[in-house]
Structures
1.
Amino acid sequence: MSDVTLAELASRLGEPELVVLDVRRPDEFAGNVVAPCDPRPGRIPGARNVDVGAGPGAEVIAYCHSGSRSALAVQVLAAAGYAARNYVGSWHEWSRDGSLPAELG
């Protein structure tokens, strides 16, 4: 499967068969820790920090800060039978577009 772009992910938020998986540390997910290169804290709305029960048939899009941890997560999820894709731009790209939503806490 191909990588996910910012435009595709932004347009697909809220789809019932889509799981957005944030594979950052819990403190990053909560917005308590922000990388110096990111203009704002938070996460992509609806993202799950750990989703072991996504279920068969669900598409999983993984992201992290810059796409490397999520690339590993995609390999593991794909090996477990999930339809998994990596959002390479991850929070580093998403956080730069102030028109896109973000969640904290």
2.
Amino acid sequence: MTICDIAILGAGPYGLAAGAHLAQVKGLDVRIFGEPMDFWHSHMPEGMFLRSPWAASHISDPRMALTLDTFEKVDGHQIPKPIPLDRFVDYGLWFQREAVPQIDRRRIKRVERHSQVFRLTLDDGEQFESRRVVIAAGIASFARRPQQFQGLPSELVTHASDQRDVRQFTGKRVLVIGAGQSALESAALMNEAGAEVEVVVRARDVHWLGWRARLQKLGPFAKLLYSPHDIGPAGVSRIVAVPGLLKYFPRDLQDRFRVRALRPAGARWLAPRCKDIPITTGLSITSAISSGEKLRVRLDDGSSRDVDHVLLGTGYRVDISRYPFLPPELSQSLSQMNGFPKLGPGFESSVPGLHFLGAPSAWTFGPLMYFVCGTDYAARRLARYVTAARSTNGAK
């Protein structure tokens, strides 16, 4: 049976960055599996823009030569700001061609621990073994669907990650649940496509980002409060930008930083596009009942809405047991906290040789791991750890 040193599951920003850095480790046999940038291309609405600023949207390579700036020059076309989703996908595909041209586009169906190695089964039935496995499979498996909407047909209820073409809602009445970027921008896109849209938010207010831009006039002082990544409020932004520093804070404080940095919010530039959309705040959904081709949604103030469709902009909840390629016996053997794997140096889990990158690593390394800008810290630490381990074990 074929054996390699490292198998990377996923070819999004984290998988590509990990592959780019590990490719620089001499003598290391690395294989990357998955369709490049698939989540960004297939699970986000057409016409969407990145919430993250330019400085926080580069995928990491060892020399930081494959940046958005370089791509813009090579491509010959200026990239607008905020960054359009389709242009970011183009950038990711260019990065893949330049950094890790050899990608196996097949998917991993199953990962099993077999003696001292991992046995992986591909979707076409082929099997091979790997000494290490790096899971960079993204968040598609973690889409959060509230209990009130369980069991309802997809014709009536979908998650924001299920919709690619919002034009199908033209002329329809749509209720959007949520107050984050995906909910608010999906609402704006549907409204602009001719749908009748209402947004329902459990919180009392919709939070719009933008304090960092307002504080730019303070000059150097603003840089003390906000990192270029623009994740989290003043002060917190600086702390979460350095995962190596964050881990020294007490656990309860780390958790509070994560909540503050990841609370639902919309980009400031999105607010004008939502000004004509009714946004109902301070209410929660109590039930949803289908009636023919309509859906009656009841709220906790006793009111109801009869709509053609409900779009769940309810975000994602990490739970590694929901990865379809991880069998229960493997996922249950991992040391976890609320669905997150507890990770050590090099993003290695409690199962030796099994690493997690991206959102699943956020309990250990903080909210930076939810964003593209986290690829630099994650990929560099992973490559450094693997290099050290090979030296210790005689390059095996």
3.
Amino acid sequence: MKLVVAIISKQDAEQTVEALTKADFRTTRLDSVGGFLKEKNSTLLVGVEAKQVDAVLSVIGQTAKSHTEQLTPTPAMGGPGDFFLADPVEVSVGGATVFVVDVDRFERL
């Protein structure tokens, strides 16, 4: 048994959960917040047999797409009279970060 933990952008979450459900994979969705951009994400938990992991990854890969956005860096705390003007930077966001973890025991109670 495996546990697939997929961290995806919040905007892709609904479509991904629907696609996983349509493919007969039970999914638990948790709201989360990312580190670098402090963006809202969703963390999906999917428990499957080892032979089903590739199918789950395929569904996630088809629905959680990466794209680019313009980000204006925020200034660090400066002293009086400091002036900060930053140009927007293009960053890649979205897609999925996925962990596949062995499960020693699973029970549905």
